[in-house]
Design a protein that fits this description.
- The protein has 183 residues and is mainly alpha-helical.
- The chain has one domain.
- Helices cover 58% and strands 0% of the residues.
- It has eight helices and no strands.
- Helix 2 crosses helix 7.
- The longest helix has 19 residues.
Length: 183
């Protein structure tokens, strides 16, 4: 059984990686080290309502099970760990596209939202060749502890002219303000 558990865990990580890097990578560019760190880092949240973001993240496991045609209960048992930062950000990008920003005129922009968040965090440049684990860990710590600027610089959503304090808002509210500013 341990072999199958390892297989599921590896397949799930590859599925997340491929989902997040569909058009971003080629044979020369890899974000594997960054994605491993994002997957290995538990999403600790500041606001109670961000529990919803964690739940969306772990719900990706259902989508994975359905996609690869595994028994959902087995997958959920094997992947029984708290939501990772990777799962939360990817799930947020998917939810943003599927529930708010879906527009056939523009096509699926899930990856645009996902990479925009990584860029705002300061992680999008961290290919395997440029990966610095200490810097990446510091960025993730500052994000989860809300140690970024009130306008969101250093967080998921940077809004240059925002005059409020995004660090005091839950992530879903931050996304809404960002999208209002985006349009």
């Amino acid at each position: 059984m341990a072999k199958f558990e390892d297989q599921v865990k590896n397949e799930y990580f590859k599925w997340l990686y491929n989902y997040g890097c569909k058009s971003k990578t080629n044979n020369k560019i890899s974000y594997h080290k960054l994605f491993v760190l994002l997957y290995d880092t538990t999403f600790d949240f500041y606001h109670y309502s961000d529990l919803n973001r964690a739940m969306d993240g772990t719900d990706l496991r259902y989508r994975f099970a359905y996609t690869v045609k595994y028994d959902t209960s087995i997958v959920m048992d094997i992947l029984d760990k708290p939501c990772s930062v990777l799962e939360m950000i990817l799930a947020l990008a998917i939810k943003c596209e599927e529930t708010i920003m879906d527009n056939p005129k523009y096509g699926d922009r899930t990856l645009q939202w996902f990479w925009s968040m990584l860029k705002n965090l300061g992680l999008a440049y961290m290919t395997d060749e440029r990966f610095d684990k200490k810097i990446a860990n510091d960025i993730l710590y500052n994000f989860m502890e809300r140690r970024y600027e009130p306008n969101g610089k250093g967080g998921l959503f940077y809004i240059p002219n925002y005059d409020g304090d995004l660090t005091q808002l839950d992530i879903w509210s931050q996304l809404g303000i960002y999208l209002d500013d985006f349009d």
